[in-house]
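User: For documentation purposes, I need each entry recorded in a consistent format: the amino acid sequence on its own, followed directly by the corresponding C-alpha cells. There are two entries in this batch. Please keep commentary to a minimum and don't merge the entries.

Assistant: Recorded as requested. Entry 1:
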Amino acid sequence: MSKFFRFLFVGVASLAVNSAFAQTEDDAFFDDLGDVSTEVSSNMPTSGPKDGLEPIEMLNPRADDIFWQKVVYRTIDLREKMNYPLYYPEEAQDGRQSFFTLIFRLIQEGKINVYEYLDTREIFTDEHIVSFKELIDKFEVIHTVKADSLTNDSIIVVDESDVPNRDIVKYYVKEVWYFDKITSTFNARIIAFCPIMVKETDLGIQKFPLFWVPFETLRPFLSQTEVLITDKNNGARPSYDDIFIKRRFSSYIYKESNIYNRNLLEYNMTSEDVRKEQQKVKVLLSNFENDLWEY
C-alpha cells in the first residue's frame, strides 16, 4: 500500500470513529444545565419511543374453532408490590401517568367510552355509556367548568392533583380462557377493567366500582404509554400494553362463570373456603391445559 493510500485510510477511519462518538444537541444525554435530558431519557434504547407504536398483535380465532372456554373475574390489588407500576406515579410526571389517570383523561377527552357497572352482568351498549359529567358528579371529583374561548361550550377542567388516582386501589378484571383447536393453543384474553374507588364515608370505608372499560378500546393508548417497572434501571420502560398482554401483574380470582352467576363470597362462608375455591379454579385452568397432551 502506498503512503498516500495509508494516509487516506487512516483519515477515513478517524472520521468514522469521530462520527460514531459525535453527539448533537438533540440526542445528547445531558442538557445544557448538566441535567438528564427529559426527552432522551424517556426514549432510551432500553425503552424506545412509544409515539405511533401499535398494540401487540393478537389473533382473533373463529368462534367454531373454540373447543373450550371459561370466563374468569379477577381482582388486581394495587397495594401489592408487583402492581405498583399501575398505581404510580400518583400525579403524572416524567412522561408517565398511572393506569387510572390515563383512563380518566381518555374519558375526559372523549377518546373512549366506559360503561355502567352492574352487579350481575356487563353490558357494553350505548344505553349504558357513562359520560364524563356523570362520572365526576356521582363520585364528587373536584373540578371547575369554563367556557371555550372559540365555541363558548362548557369545558370541565380537573387539575392533576384532583384526579382521584389515590382512591383507586383495586381493579376488577374480566377475562376469558379458551382453547383454539386449530392452533392447539390455550390462551387467556382480557375483556375489560373496572376501577374500584375506596373512600371513607359516614358508614366507614366503602368501595365503589366506577365503570367497565373494554380492554380493546384502551390498547391503542396503552401501547404508547410507558411504565417504570423497576428501580434498578430507570431506562427499562415497557408499555402498559406489554404489562397486560404478558400478564406482568398479580391478581386473585373472585368469580368464575357459573349457572347461578354468583361470586365466590356468595357461596363460601369463610375466607378459608374462598381460598380453597380460588385454588380449585386455578387448578381447573392448569389441569385443562395439561390434560390436552399425552406424554
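Entry 2:
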Amino acid sequence: MSDMDGRTVRVTVRESGGERGQHLWIHSVAMKRLIFTCICALVAQSLPGQEYKDFGKDRLNSSPRHGEWVDIKSGERIIKAFVVYPERKDKAPAILVIQEIFGLTDWLRSMCDELAENGVIAIAPDFLNGQKFEDADGARKAISAVTDDQVKTVLDATADYALKIPACSGSIAVCGFCRGGGWAFMYANDNQKLKAAYSLYGAAPDSGDKVKNIACPVYGFYAENDERVNATIPKAEEFMKSAGKRYEPVIYKGAGHGFMRSGEPNNPAIREADKKARDEAWARWKNLLKQL
C-alpha cells in the first residue's frame, strides 16, 4: 500500500462472509501523514516526560535575599558564579555549591537561595560555561569532559573569592549534588581550609590516596534506591577510618537518586518518597550548617 512518490494507491477490502470486494482509493501523502502522526504519538508516550525540566525561578524571583552573578578571575579565564547572601547582622560562613550534571540551572540557584535562607553565603561556580541541559545524555557528555584538574582549578578560585567577601566570616565548606557530590568529596582532599564537606548522592572515593589529606568531616546524604552510588560507600568508610577521618553517611529510606531535586515542593513532577527524604535530609543539614 505504501507509495513514496505521492501517487494514489488502491486498497481492497473484503467483506466478512462474502466474495465481494470494495476498492478504496487513498492518496499516499495523506496516508504517510497519518502514519507519521501515529509514530510520533507512540514515541512521545515512550519519553520520560519532564523528568529533567528545570524549575526554581519562582523561588528566586520572590526571595528577599540578595543574589547576584559575579566574575571570578582564574589565570586568563573568567569563571561565572552565582552568589546568594543570607539576611543576618553578622558575618557568615561561605559554602561552595557544586552543580548536578545539568549545569548551573535555576534549580541549583534556588538551592543556593535555600542555603542562604539558613544563614550561609552560597556561591555556585559554573563548570559548563553557561551550558544548561534538559536531556540527560547531553548533560552527561558535557560534564564528563570536565577533568579533575579543572574541577580543582574552578573550586580553588571560587574558594579564594569567597574568603575575600567582606561579609564572609572566614569559614568555608563545600557541597555538591550527583556528580557534584563526588567532586565535593574529592575537593575535601584538595583543600585543607574546608570546615566541612556535604556529598549528596555522589560517588565516594575509590582509593585511600583520595582521602588521606582530608582535614574536615564529610557528611554523606544518600538514597536507598541508588545502589550504583551506595556501592561505593563501604570502601570509602574503610579508607576514611584507616586514615583517621570522619565520614558520616546516611541513607534515606525510600528515596531515589537526585531526591533533593525530585523531592522539591516546587517540582512539577515531585515524588512523594523523595519529598520525605528531602525533608529529613534538610533537617539534618540545617543542624550541620549551624556548626560552621
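Summary note for entry 2:
The chain has ten helices and ten strands.
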